[in-house]
Specification:
Blueprint (H helix, E strand, L loop, with lengths): L3 H5 L16 H6 L1 H18 L3 E5 L2 H13 L3 E5 L11 H8 L2 E4 L2 H9 L4 E3 L4 H4 L11 E5 L4 H21 L8 E5 L7 H9 L4 E2 L5 E2 L6 E4 L3 H6 L3 E4 L2 H9 L4 E5 L3 H10 L7 H6 L6 E3 L3 H22 L1
Parallel strand pairs: 1-2, 2-3, 3-4, 5-6, 5-10, 6-9, 10-11, 11-12
Antiparallel strand pairs: 7-8
């Protein structure tokens, strides 16, 4: 089960993972029936081929049960990017101990956590560190990149906040910032008619990765779906809603602001279940505050905080230029 890169490596896919992406408790609940159908389908394949090794990658809502079945038929079970039991649901450690032979973590703090729980764990350096070293800035026009996440429900919540940030910034910014270009940097799996319908309703201009232009009244927003690392690298500042993208930006040393606006149900439930106070992956990895990070429901307060950091970062860049 995987995406485009798995296909390009000449592997047979049982299921394309693009539609599986969920974020938060509410969307996970609604995806239960779909996941159960996929689980049954994969179990039939596992039963047929009787693998010696089963590798689970992230997505514990489905993979933990698949680990259980693979272990039951005698496969060696390896879990890469394991469940984040250090965030919530520490009871899952009992299942992981019972149903896996080895956990592989790419985060030092997570490796230590699993080690403390007496779960067999190996640490691999995050391959992003090596991969992202080759990217250098090639375009020095003033640019702000918007990265609203990769899940459709996440984009629907966060993109409107980003649009309002741009509109406020354009109205109130100093003269030297009036020629800024805006990039909407999306993962190819995130493309949908709904997103472009939203852009159209807000009179925003988009360019697809094919180069085809869609006529819109305001040529301020350019949509990027390919070579996103280079697009990120060419920005003066990124406004990000994805934890992985935030870590990528931190590795490339691109100034950024991280935010997320959860839905009502997730926000109030998370407050009681989550055991950590820091939600940003770049800050967690660095074990200190390296990125301004805001997770809240109040839209007005969120806008003010993002705009304050936006002006602060851009003005500092102007002074140091």
């Amino acid at each position: 089960m995987g995406g485009e890169n798995i296909k390009k490596a000449n592997n047979d896919l049982i299921y394309d993972y693009g539609s599986l992406k969920t974020f938060g408790f509410s969307s996970s609940i609604f995806s239960f029936v779909r996941n159960y159908k996929i689980y049954r389908k994969i179990v039939r394949v596992i039963h047929k081929i009787r693998p010696e090794i089963f590798i689970a990658v992230a997505y514990p809502g489905l993979n933990l049960l698949l680990c259980r079945y693979a272990k039951k038929i005698g496969a060696k079970v390896i879990y890469l990017l394991p469940p984040q039991i250090w965030v919530w649901g520490s009871f899952r450690k009992y299942f992981i101990k019972k149903w896996t032979d080895l956990v592989i973590s790419i985060f030092p703090f997570e490796h230590q956590f699993y080690n403390n729980e007496n779960i067999k764990v190996s640490y691999w350096q995050n391959p992003l560190f090596e991969e992202l070293k080759k990217y250098k800035r090639t375009d020095y026009k003033k640019k702000i990149g918007l990265m609203p996440g990769s899940r459709k429900n996440e984009i629907k919540r966060n993109l409107p906040v980003m649009i309002e940030v741009i509109q406020n910034f354009e109205r109130n910014s100093q003269e030297q910032f009036h020629n800024i270009e805006y990039f909407l940097i999306l993962h190819p799996d995130s493309l949908s008619c709904e997103i472009f319908h939203y852009l159209d309703n807000h009179h925003l201009f988009a360019i697809l990765h094919s180069g085809e232009k869609i006529k819109r009244p305001n040529p301020n927003l350019i949509t990027i779906t390919q070579n996103r690392y280079q697009a990120m690298c060419d920005c003066d500042l990124l406004i990000i809603c994805s934890g992985t993208a935030s870590l990528e930006a931190a590795i490339m040393k691109i100034p950024q602001i991280f935010f997320n606006r959860p839905n009502f149900f997730d926000y109030h439930l998370f407050r009681y279940l989550i055991k950590i106070k820091e939600y940003n992956l770049a800050n967690l990895h660095a074990e200190k505050k390296v990125v301004p990070s805001f997770v809240m429901r109040n839209k007005n307060v969120l806008l003010k905080k993002i705009l304050f950091e936006l002006n602060k970062i851009l003005i500092e860049k102007e002074i140091n230029a």
